């Protein structure tokens, strides 16, 4: 593997540093090529814009359009399914609670569930389709986020796979010691919380070591140079503008159908 050349230079293959860092992006994964800052802004626009709308049509329009982008996000189906399970459970539980105890009946329950999913899906796509290093570069260079919290975000995202490996290690270690729940739900619950506590202890230790190492390398103490530049392209601006237009279209459709219901109305 050829080393990455310094900024502004070319490597032995004749590629510049920007070309060396750039990953090939096809039609099926075009969202990977969008600047993470643009994806984050678009997700925030949709999330905050949907807060006032409690009817199912407004959130449904946004959810349908956002879901249509999933095949072009470049995200592995298994990864997307695993990440979406908690949000699906939250949407189902929110709808059930509103159905049982809400005043709007089935329409209010459906609106609450759809609204939650429509708010969560854009953020899920923005996070899952962004490389952690690209995201940190975009936060610092494009959104002017201070370097210390941006490096914290990068470190946290890099530690997620490590925590998953530690969870598997804890599970195998307890199984090797004969700690099995069998058919007892109470024992299974007790073992589960024991694993969670052990993972929490390991996470704190890992975080402490990482913070000490980053402080020793002077991360976040002042301006730093960047190995690559976070570029803002026309497609990035179009994505942000499209998110605003999508919100306007969703509110227009629900208003024309007479289903628009506002939280503070």
Automatic annotation (TrEMBL):
The domain of life for this entry's organism is Bacteria
Species in which this protein is naturally found:
Thermobifida halotolerans
Its placement in the membrane is given as: Multi-pass membrane protein
Q: Which UniProt keywords apply?
A: Membrane, Transmembrane, Transmembrane helix
Tell me the protein's name.
Energy-coupling factor transporter transmembrane protein EcfT
Question: InterPro entries annotated for this entry?
Answer: ABC/ECF_trnsptr_transmembrane
Protein localization: Membrane
Q: Which CDD domains match?
A: EcfT (cd16914)
Q: Where are the transmembrane segments?
A: 30-51, 57-75, 80-101, 107-128, 234-253
Q: Which GO terms describe its cellular component?
A: plasma membrane
Signal sequence, renumbered to the chain: none
């Amino acid at each position: 593997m050829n080393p990455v050349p310094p900024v502004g230079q070319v490597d032995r293959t004749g590629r510049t540093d920007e070309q060396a860092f750039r990953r090939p992006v096809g039609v099926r994964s075009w969202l990977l090529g969008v600047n993470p800052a643009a994806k984050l802004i678009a997700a925030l626009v949709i999330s905050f814009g949907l807060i006032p709308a409690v009817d199912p049509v407004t959130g449904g329009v946004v959810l349908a359009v956002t879901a249509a982008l999933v095949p072009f996000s470049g995200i592995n189906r298994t990864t997307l399914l695993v990440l979406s399970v908690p949000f699906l459970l939250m949407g189902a539980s929110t709808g059930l609670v509103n159905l049982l105890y809400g005043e709007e009946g089935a329409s209010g329950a459906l609106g609450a569930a759809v609204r939650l999913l429509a708010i969560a899906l854009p953020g899920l796509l923005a996070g899952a389709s962004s490389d952690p290093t690209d995201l940190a570069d975009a936060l610092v260079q494009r959104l002017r986020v201070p370097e210390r919290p941006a490096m914290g975000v990068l470190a946290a995202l890099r530690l997620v796979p490590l925590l998953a490996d530690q969870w598997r290690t804890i599970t195998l270690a307890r199984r090797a010691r004969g700690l099995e729940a069998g058919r007892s739900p109470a024992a299974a619950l007790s073992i589960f919380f024991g694993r969670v506590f052990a993972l929490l202890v390991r996470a704190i230790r890992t975080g402490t070591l990482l913070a000490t190492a980053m402080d020793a390398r002077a991360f976040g103490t002042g301006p730093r140079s960047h190995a690559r530049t976070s570029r803002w392209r026309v497609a990035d601006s179009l994505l942000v503008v499209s998110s605003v237009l999508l919100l306007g279209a969703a509110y227009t459709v629900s208003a024309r159908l007479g289903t628009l219901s506002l939280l503070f109305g």
